[in-house]
Amino acid sequence: MQQHNAIKQKYPDAVLLFRVGDFYETFGSDAIIASQVLGITLTKRNNGAASASELAGFPHHALDTYLHKLVKAGYRVAICDQLEDPKQAKGIVKRGVTEMVTPGTATNEKLLDHHANNFLACLHFVDDNQFGIAFLDISTGEFFLAEGDREYADKLLQSFQPAEILFQRHRQKLFKEYFGTKAYTYTLDEWVFQEHYTRELLLKQFQTHSLKGFGVEDLNNGLTAAGGLLHYLKDTEHPNLQHIRSIQRIDRSDFLWMDRFTIRNLELLGGANADAHTLLKVLDHTVSPMGARLLKRWMVFPLKDRRRIEERLDLVEYLIAAADLRPALIQHIRACGDIERLASKVPMKKSGPREVLQLARGLVQVAAMQQLCLESDNAWLRRLGDTLDPCSGLAAKIQETLSENPPPTIQKGDFIRKGVSAELDELREIASTGKEYLVKLQQEEAQRTGISSLKVGFNNVFGYYLEVTNSHKQKVPAEWMRKQTLANAERYITPELKEYEEKITGAEEKIIRLEAGIFEKLLEALLEYLSPIQTNGNIVGILDCVLCFAQVSLSFTYRKPQLHDGDNMKIIAGRHPVIERYLPQGEQYISNDLVLDKTQQQLIILTGPNMSGKSALLRQAALITLMAHMGCFVPADEALLPVTDRIFTRVGASDNLSGGESTFMVEMNETASILNNLTPRSLVLLDEIGRGTSTYDGISIAWSIAEYLHQCEQQPLTLFATHYHELNELEEKWSRIRNYHITNRESGNKIIFLRKLAPGGSTHSFGIHVARMAGMPAALIDRANEVLAHLEAKPIEGVPAETANVAPVPSAAGARAVKEKIKAVDSPQFQLSIFDIHSQTFDSIRKQLEAVDINRLTPVEALLKLQEVKKLLGSS
Ligand SMILES: Nc1ncnc2c1ncn2[C@@H]1O[C@H](COP(=O)(O)OP(=O)(O)OP(=O)(O)O)[C@@H](O)[C@H]1O
Question: Where is each DNA mismatch repair proteins mutS family domain found (predicted)?
Fold first, then answer.
């Protein structure tokens, strides 16, 4: 317990799994946690004079089963092992923490999702708005760094979705304010974030004298964050990280920028909501973990360089046409396995024979892929083929060494092929044929010496012996050595028997040791190949992604977009890639054409009834643009798209109540971020801006935002969906603003959504109709119609002030007019009360009462009437 307590003191914030013999034990508060999270029995242990302590444990071989449960439940786990062989130990066995497992440092299969990276992030607060930031996935070796302002840091955190975020201890409050409270975080001491210390760590890791070769030398803040990550890995007992061999910078200017709201608003990845219909789900037809992981990155970091985008698009086009090559390549990629993660496990000493063989088999698939690429008549594929390196020597060596179906761990042995080591073969022979050997030896010697009573025996004192009865003593050859005399027999040993004995005793143990040694050598050889294997992983990922694009283009009839350096956007028959996949059976997505250009139609004001498809149209424009910049074909018959550097969306209302902000505040924050970051090549999508406040404030804000976007120097292409039909007035005033609406048809008291985009504004929102569709009480709907009819009875003056040039917001007189109307609606005559809700009942009561002539009513009739009225009330 003293040893336990001393170790626990060093890891106070972790659950300590303390190895005792064949068990991992937990004590005290750790035991309470373990028993609750793992569902194992909690017992008490009496430590002599000390008070009883809680105890909960599990067998050591069940570590894999239990470890991930603790980590998934949000605990840091320190694994404390026995550091020496208990048989050799003098006194208490030496113990120490061999690994600390946290969400961001997990390498265990059960903690990792094959289709997603598991990033550990480090955020270096330089000041309140300047950050260095780094991301590392130790399960693959991918390492990135960047630096920038809060907005950029936030966007990167959203894009990488790290499992754990590290930052300076005293920045806890600011971190929460800036980045929310949902992420798993851990804080480090301030001193860690020193430039020279972190740089040293990086140089040591990469074994270089400078960081110039990685092109990151100038990013001091980013490097500090990256070094912070390495410090943490050292601190959490992760010493073997040879697979982390380089670091890449993420340059904001290389990618089409989407702010964090856009990534969320467009529902690209889905985040915590596993059931969300996302673009990722629609597009992800990758067949390898490398491809799945890379696709996510391509989605949140789409390209901006036209040449590179076109390269990808051309390759997709080529693969669509290559009907034979495509399935062949897909088959090899599918069979390849996760070579990236398999290779990363080698330096961390976490790979077993089964995984190593899997890696070799993956490399064989790489060889087949390489051949197909090199044989193709596509220059890009040939280039990819050239970069692949199947490491044939290594793959062959692994396959020649390991048996066909090896076990996952080395403990059980019997995974090295026959013929690899003569010594091993002989030992196995001995172990399996030990008895037969002895019988054979006994027979041979009996024959040679003529001692018919010869017996082979064994005892613990001097091992194997030959026993001869006294009557045959004289026949014993001179070279036999006498060891023991019994009453009626003598026992002898021979050099041959001794040699055999040495071999057979502990043959099993030796076999295991020998196999482990051979395996160890294989791993050492493998270490030399980490770099080409990682490159292979990357190329396989790229191939998988472009093949996936080809596949989805074929399945969902996507077409090749055309990117250009001009300003206009023209989409013919565009569709929403996600909605069209999830429409109820029998329904078809209605495509739409969309044109935006900087001379005539820079900003479209889009109106139309609720549910008509305004948001869908906005999002589809953004998603088509995004997909094109990923190098993927798009859901449209034709798409001519300007090279875009930013997509901004403000779609729908969203709450950040836990973050302490109101819906409207969030809306304004997001819009402000758009307006402050505009570029001439931005695409801006605004959906119902201003709806989170009073009508007048809302219209005024929406109105002036539209004007701002028209008048600002960047003149971004903009789609502006709104229910404020007043905004249609803007078309008259500004040369590049155009009104469009989404069509519908009224049929009786129903509306039919035609979902076609047409020029001109619309005047109705049909909100009440949608409320009816949603199942609101009929009386409420009637009342809403009544109120609406009253409000619409005469036009409200001054909304908007059409003649005003500068700020055509509604006039004070207009505001007064509306207030008066609302007041009128609120008068007793209009009040929504129980009488309205039950109006039918009361109508009939009124009619009955009106028909009564009190002067002629007898008392009995009056009572009967009263009873009738009561009945009516009772049935309402
Ligand atoms: N072009 C289309 N073809 C088929 N279905 C569509 C189309 N556009 C939209 N829809 C369907 O209609 C639903 C409502 O669309 P959307 O949310 O875009 O309407 P909206 O006009 O923005 O409504 P609101 O003003 O109430 O927010 C979508 O969820 C989708 O299922």
Answer: 682-698
